[in-house]
Amino acid sequence: MFYKCSSLSFIKPLQNWNVSNGNNFSGMFYGCSSLSDIKPLQNWNVLNGNYFSGMFYGCSSLSDIKPLQNWNVSQSKLTNIH
Fold this sequence. Notes:
By secondary structure, the chain is largely without helices or strands.
């Protein structure tokens, strides 16, 4: 969705997105090298997500993924989010 948006850094408007029916989050922020704060995503309901591969691959400014610690990915088939 935001694949290679290298200047994307502000994602606060995404905090209230309803992604509860989302299935494939793979590569969603791939190559977003300016993205450093993913706290707005902390309350996303990703329970129905199956694929998360490379979701944050290439996010070289991202150093803290603790905001995602409460994501329930127990139903996923692939969870390597880099």
